[in-house]
Amino acid sequence: MQISPLNRGFVGEVSGIDISVPLSLDQVAAIEAGMDQYGVLVFRDQKLTDEQQCAYSRNFGELEATLIGQMSKPSERRLGPVEMGDISNLGPDGKLRGRDDNRRMYALGNRLWHADASFRATGAIYSLLSARVVPGHGGNTEFADMRAAYDALDPATKVLIEDLVTEHSIAFSRAELGFDDYGEGNADKIRPVRHSLVRTHPVTGRKSLYLSAHIGTILGWPMPEARAFIRDLTEHATQPRFRHAHQWQVNDLVMWDNRTTMHRARRYRDLEEVRDLRRTTIRGIGMTTAQVPAMAAE
Length: 298
Known about the structure:
Elements: E1 2-5, E2 11-15, H1 25-38, E3 40-43, H2 50-57, H3 67-70, E4 85-88, H4 102-107, E5 124-133, E6 141-145, H5 146-151, H6 155-161, E7 165-168, H7 170-175, E8 193-196, E9 198-200, E10 207-209, E11 215-218, H8 223-237, E12 243-246, E13 253-257, E14 261-265, E15 276-283
Parallel strand pairs: 2-3
Antiparallel strand pairs: 1-2, 3-13, 4-15, 5-13, 5-15, 6-12, 6-14, 7-8, 7-11, 9-10
């Protein structure tokens, strides 16, 4: 197995491995080392079934149930297990969703810069996205390196943010787009949780910003000031010098570390072309900061 750096230095392209079959411990360790170094890894020509993708993902930890899967009835899901994220514009009947479809409008939040599952108290470690059908125009995924963004801050800002705690909620990010229809009985799933704004990687020791569109405030700050400051930090962290755009090809699998990167989907011809990607996510271990009792619920 080899990893070749791509243009921004925090993305590596992996070759010489077939992830559709069981891996050795040495292969898993090599991939984890690559993730520690880069933050984003690209695997080309990996034709996977959903079962194979789940099996590969479990090499790195426990799979996270998707929030939309937990809030949906089985009849509303196109894919079977709640651990398999349906990142597509298709309905349960396999047809393109309408422009005003509730699930489509919820998914538009993926176009905001975010870290997967930061709206949960434990967050997420890796996400793994497999391309099954890609549109002919648009639909790229952009990544931003939160380690490089942290390193580029001036010393005074680093001191200011060192101990700050933010509140994350998927309801906040979706409200930015005017979406608020989560159905009955899901209030506990969208309550804010708390996270440290600065994270330290458990292996490399590098610090990074833990930013996401899900952040609604900073503890102890007036809300307007907090939101303005988070917007400033996000603008800093997503400058072109910290970004990489992945242009999807069928059978690509891209794997990223949500602790050290942010990402966002880009627009494509939603109503005209199929885009079908499948995501698995590795559940986080431990919390970045203490929660109040109501926030600890998953």
